Fold each of these.
Amino acid sequence: MATLVYNSLGFYKIPITKTLLSSLMLSCGALHVPIVANYRHLMVCSVNDILFRHQLWRLMVSKMVFADMKDMVCGCLLLYYLRVFERRFGSNKYSSYLLACFTISSLLEVSLVWALNALNVTDIEYLTPGPFNIIFALFVNYYFDVPALHSTPFLGIPINAKSLTYLLGLQAMISTNSSIVCAVSGLVTGFICRWNVFHVCDIIKVPKCVASVVSKVLGGLLCSGPPAESPIQMGATFEIQRQQQIELAEQQMLFSRFAEMNPRNDSNVFPNRRQNDLSAQSSSASANSEASGSTNAEHVTTLVEMGFSRQNVVRALQRSNNDMNLATNILLSES
């Protein structure tokens, strides 16, 4: 008998990522329209445009437009894979984090390109278009915060669910000399923002008044509702079944967390307007996710060593019935 579960979370509670993906795809498609293609030269930026002509707007425009379809597909896939951080941070904090990453990585990228050109190490004419500097900055958090739940050795190399993301990032990195500089700048920025060096994330952030205005004006348009329930048969393979369980646990914890949030908490730029429905769904999801029994001491030790608090680890293992994979996913959803 089929059990009523939710489909993949999709764009639920990630309005910033949804906005970025939509604008990037539309702008890249528009550049291939003959009339708009005549203005393509305005969508690229060189170091001379910034340092000598003081055209900072070129930098901002070039970082919001992909030059070709290949980069657009690769970049959008990476942004979609990294969307988990918007759910963890909340839209307000996530938008501020992206702003800090963009500002610092852009400064580093311009400085590196100017220095390399001055030393005749390379001759980079234009900066890498598209928000790859932000994407590579998020890779630092992706490496440290998202564990590889399952790996399979292939020719002596461990392959896991994160491998595809890394391969896409590597492909984007080694395309050109400018993309290598962009990747290095983004990775350095990722370390700076992750550990909030010199309190840069406290200084560079989206003002609350701006977040409030954007939420009121565009919140209803950009917010996506929770995924609809639908009867889904159990997957035919173990991997599919495991993925179904992880997705179910993720949204169960998401609904539970939503119900426990303080009504005054403004961690999201675009608060969802279906709080009553979500509260009812979270109660049902939490009831289904509770499991009895003692926790496995070895699992507790392993998860605590990963940086989670012992209290949260014990509760997650009890909810997942000592399933290590589901408990890890629950802890990531709560953090």
Amino acid sequence: MMAPHGQTWPSETDFPDLAEVSVIARGAHATVYGAFQISAGREVALKIDNRVLAPDSDERRRFQQEARAVGRLSEHPGIIDTYIAGFTSQGHPYMVTELCQGSYADKLAKDGALTPEEVQRIGVRIADALAEAHEHRVLHRDIKPANLLIDRSGNPVLADFGVASLMDSRVGQPVVRAAMTPAYAPLETFHLRPSGEPGDVYSLAATLYALLSGRPPRFPADDRDFTIDDVIGLFTEPIGDVPGVSQTLLGMLRAAMTNNPEGRPSAMQFRDMLDSVPIAAATAAIPVATRTAPVHPALAAPPAPRRPEWTEPVTANVEAIQDRRPSPSPTPSPSPSPMPPPSPGPRPRPAWGIDRKPPAGPQGPPGPPGPPNNLPVPASRGKELELSTRRERRIAARGGKETSGIGQLILVGAIAVTIIVAGAVFAVWAFTGGEESSGDDTTADAVNCDVEKFNLSCVEPALCFNGALNDSKDFAAAEEISCKKEHQWEAYAKGELPKDVETPTIAAVSEQKIVKDTCLNEGSKGPLTSIKGVGASKWDSKVLPPTKKDFDAGSTTFYCVVQPKDGKPTTGSAFSE
């Protein structure tokens, strides 16, 4: 049965294993239903996209790839469990996920702003989840309080993971969504520049700020309509203090919301920053100065109360945003009329998020098979068995206690005053690019060759290259050059290919596990980060196989090579003394 305005009611043909279907929420792009999965005996959420993806379209193939990636991410306790993904018989993409209690947008609307301690706990958990996603090269692109859900155990989980980049972007193009919330989007989005991992970090920091203050950063508390120029103008305003929140915590959020994407910490660094703040420092009621930074008269708003109530963020003039795109986006579907009631089930649906057991009695045969368009999604681990962050693991090691006694609290209080000031200054200085440099900073990082644990060897003496890495046949083509001269590439580690590699093309070598885990692993667990730490974010890492001539002569040595992210040539070595 078709619902009005392009909204599709889930059919028994497409979802034979789901019963008691009812609408939870409708949006311009998708509808979310609650249902009971018969075979598993559990409540689930079903999200169906309003658009139809043609069988051979690029959008459909991207959905398949992204759905598998998001399914693997479900193993992280900070990311919502995804059970099934696929297409309806009419071509609508869908996902079946765990059913949660509600969102932090709902919680803000009901209870007002959260405590600094609770926001810190949420930030550590979700930043850890975001770091895991970025290691798998998956972006979120739409982090906001409405996409932070509360699971059955009361813990935060990140939802709609990958759907924004999956359904609304093309590779290499910026994302400007009709359904986006400008209050949580970084500046580069409005300039139509690609917003990658730094954009996700900005959105998470803006979300945490909203949880603390009841409002997204910079946006005044009124209901005016904003044009694209109004929104861009807001980024020149300072991010205000929040009464009762320490400058240490606020300094870290501001560092993650700097307008320069390259100055923001990675998700892993942001997690570690938040995790390093002692509870006393995060929750200390630091008074706010009566004299605030000047605000543009047109944007002035009444002062907020100490624990302000949540109000929905304003939305920008979407048409003005879309007019700036290289090519126009499809017009969003109009708001649908009420959906038809679901077929009567064996029992009424309880309130959203209440646990319900499967029907009593002996187990019957498994439910009917799902639709043939289902995509394989890896099974997820039970979240109740996971300890998601290092802070939680430390607490568990102490028997579940936050502190070891009054003495520890006194010690924390003694050092809190020092770190409140020093921490904020250091965080902003370290991650906003505020430090001064007297020369090319690509060679300024300390050298610390620590790659043996990756089955690699250090490169001594320094080894540099110029030119394209591969030729027209995909064989290694870069030419060795003295590192004292201007060069494009420098090797920072070397390893040996397996003996069963048949050809030394870059494509074939890049498929080898040792190469994927080393040269092509720019995440927190890769050798580049092991050597450079925070400085690893300045570099793009690639693999340089042995030349065809050397390979035919028996050589299997490959090099992990890097160039600065800006692509500019450098002089000197950044990886050798």
Amino acid sequence: MVPTEPNAKKRPRASLELEQPDIAAYTDLKLLYDHVSSLTSVVIQLREAVLEHGSAKLKEKVAATCESMPVLAALGLPIPASSIASSEPLLTPTPFTFGLNAKPSYASAVASSLPARSDPVSIAKVAVSMLEKSSRAVIERLPDSKDEHQDQKDLAFCQAIAQGNSLPTPLKVHRHPCNSRYRPLKLQFNNKGERDTFIAGFNRIRRSDTSITAIETSPRIRRDLTLDELKTLRTSRKFVYDENKKAGKTNFIMSDIFYKTNPNPRPFV
């Protein structure tokens, strides 16, 4: 029996896998680059728009905490696969599987979710508006003479309530421009915490503080709302009023812009 020659030793599979470079398809990389580049551009323009249109306090905070971002450098040209030295065939899977059951790569999925056009200035204005609303309260049904001294009278009224009840004092006030008989009064505070404390305090004393109870229109307070939130508020208020009037007692009460069941109903008047 003729002895066979021993097989040549093979390198372990693990060593081959360690030597393989991490390679992605250029088309996939290009999609990811375009996505990141688009986001970078939006962030840059958003920062500039906030610094231009935001309040002084917001501008100062953004300038101090958000450094300007550089624009991404251009993506290099693809390198032919034949120029990549490798002793074994590449095991990188193809990034796309075409057909009815095709499953796109992560980069293509993210890129396809981007809006066709971005408007950073509009986004910035909405962001600034939301930030300002978060520290603003609104008093409704407060008598309104609509003269040039109305803001001064309103500020004095709010300051007196704040000082007399140990509540935060609003920085400024103004009447919302509209055709209502009693234009809503907007109160600007330093932050959301002060705004919330004032609203809670006003609701606590509005039936006991003589400066409020003496007003025949019964002023009420809420946070500043978006248009969609205002629609929800009006719908909730109408439901509460109609249902309580029908039942002759306060079965429902308001909670922010929504309504809830009243655990202790009282006669409806």
